[in-house]
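Loading example: each entry is read as two labelled lines plus one structure line.
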Amino acid sequence: MTTANLRDWLLSDAPTSRRQARFASWYKGWLTLRSNTLAMVGLIVLALIILAAIFAPVLATHDPYAQDLGQRLLGAGHSGHLLGTDSLGRDIYSRLLYGARISIYIVLLVAMVAPLVGLIVGTVSGYAGGWGDVVLMRITDIFLAFPRLILALAFVAALGAGIENAVLAISLTAWPPYARIARAETLTIRNSDYIHAIRLQGAGPFRIVTRHIWPLCISSLVIRVTLDMAGIILTAAALGFLGLGAQPPSPEWGAMISEGRKYILDYWWVATFPGLAIFAISLAFNLLGDGLRDMLDPKEDTA
Amino acid sequence: MTDMTNGEGRRGPSFAPWLSKTLTTLVTVAVTLLGLLFVTFMIGRVMPIDPVLAVIGERATQAQYDATYLELGLDKPLLVQFGIYVSDVLQGDLGKSIRTGQQVTTDIARVFPATLELATLGTLIGVAIGVPLGVLAAVKRGSWIDQVARLVGLVGYSMPIFWLGLVGLLLFYGILGWVAGPGRLGIFYQGIVEPITGMLLVDAALRGEWTVFRDAFSHIILPAALLGYYSLAYISRMTRSFMLEQLSAEYVITARVKGLSEWQVIWGHAFRNIRIQLITVIALAYANLLEGSVLTEIIFAWPGIGSYITTSLLANDMNSVLGGTIVIGSIFVGINILSDLLYRFFDPRAK
C-alpha cells in the first residue's frame, strides 16, 4: 500500500472494520499531537533519552563503575572524559547513560503499578456504590491527605532503602488520584444505555468492569500518568539524593547529585550534569503530558 | 441542647446547613487523622528493626529484653496496641527519640519554628510574585508575559528542588557572594537573641537586634526564594486559569461597556471574584512548602523538621520519623480543612 493510499485509508469517513476505525482515531490523535510543537519537542527528547538508555553500552566511553583515583574530579573534556569525572574518578558521561536506565526503569514500574491499583480501586468503588464505595473513597482520601514525599520517606524507612522499595513507596503514595479519576469516569458510564444492554445480555459485574468500563477510563488515566511522570522522576531522584533509593555505586542521577554535593563549590560539574539530566527528562514528560491532555481532553484549558 | 443538624425537627434558617456541613467535615477530619495514625502505626510495625532492641541496645540480657517487651505492650493484640498508640498521641506523647534522648514532641517544638519561618517567607515570596504574574498572564493572554509565566511554571514543575538549591548556593554564595552560606545564622551571631517565637527574623526584630536580623536574613533569603519559586509556579498557574474564567464572564463585558477603566475591570471586578479561590490555592501552596522544605533544609543545613526527619531516618530512629510524619500530616490535613471551611464561609455560592 502506498503512503497516499494508507493516509486515505486512515482518514476515511466510513471505516469498514473496527480495526480501521481504531487506527484512524490513533492517526488523528497523532496528527493533533504533531501540530503541537512543544509536545513534539518533549517526545523527541524522551525518545533520545530512551535510546541513550538502550544503547548505553555502545555509547558509553568508559565503564560506569570503574574507579580511577588518579583521574578524580577532572573537568569536562579532560583526557577523554566528555563530562569530567567524579570523586572516585568515574566517567560522568558514561554514568549518566547508565543512570537513564534506572530512571526509566523506576518510572515504568511506578507507571504500571500505581494506575493499575487506582483503576481497580476506583472502578470497583464507582461500580459497586454503597458502603464499599464510602469505605474505599475514605481510604483514598486518607492517602490523598498525606504529604507525599514524607509518606514515601516513612515507607522507605520501614521497608529499607533500595530501588524496588522506592518504587513501592512511590506507588503507595501515587495511586489515590488515579482512583479518583477512575471512579468519576465509572460513575458517568455506569448508568449509560450500553451498560444496561450488556447487563441484560447476562454479563456479570466482573466482565462489565474489566471489559466495558476499564477501556473507557484508560485515556484519562494515560494523560494523568504522563503528567505525573515528571513528579515520579523527581520523587525517585529525591529518594536517591537522600540515600534512600538506589544505593551506591549505582549511577542513579539523584545519588550522583548527592555525591557531587560535597564538591559543589569547587567542582561544580559533578552535581550539575546529573541535575540537568533529571531536568531534561522531567521537562520532556511535562511537555508531552500537556500535549496529550490537549489532544485527548480538549475541555481542559491549556495552562 | 437539641441537635439541630440531625433531627426530624425544624432546621434553623441558614446557619444550620453550614453547621451540619462543618460537623461532617470535622468527622471527616477525625477519620482522616485516625487513618494517618493507623498508617504510621503499621509502618512502625512492619519495619525490619526490632523495637525492643532499638530501645535497650543489642547487648541487653534476655530478662531486660522481656521486661522491655512487656513495657512496650508488644504482647497485647495489635488492635489494643493501636488503641494505646492513639491515646498516647492524643495526649501529645509521640514517644522518645533514640537519637537525641528527648521526647519527640520536645524535639519537634524546638525545630519546627525554623521550618515555619522558612515556609512562611517562601509563601510570601510566591504570593507577591505569583499572583500578579498570573493575573497579567491571563489579561495579556498569548503575549510574551503569558509565555514567561508558562515557562516559569514548566521549569518549576520539572526541576529537582535539591539540585536548584545546590546551583543557587554555588552561584549566589560561592561565586557572587551575595548571600550567606548554609545554616540559619553566622557563628558570631549565635546565642545573642533570646528566643521568643523561635523564628529568628521575628525574634531579632522584636529584640531590636538589627545586625542579627540582617545576618539571619542573608541566610534565609536563598532557601526562601527557592521555595518561593516553587510555590509561585503553582500559584501563578492557578491564578491565570481563575482569571481567564472570570474575564470571559458577561459581567466583565458589562463593566467594560459601562466604560470602567481596564484597571477597575481587572482588579475591582474580576480579581475580587477569585480572591476566595486564591485563598484555597495559597493555603495548599503553604502546606506543600512545609513538606517541600524537607529537601531544601538538607541542602541549606537548615535545622528544621525536614532535616530532623531525614537525620532520624538515617539513624533508624523511628519514633522521631513517625512523630514528624504525624505532625506534618496533621498540619497538612488541618490547612486543607481550614481552607475548605473558609471557602464555604466566605463564598455565598457555596452555601
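The radius of gyration of chain B is 25 Å.
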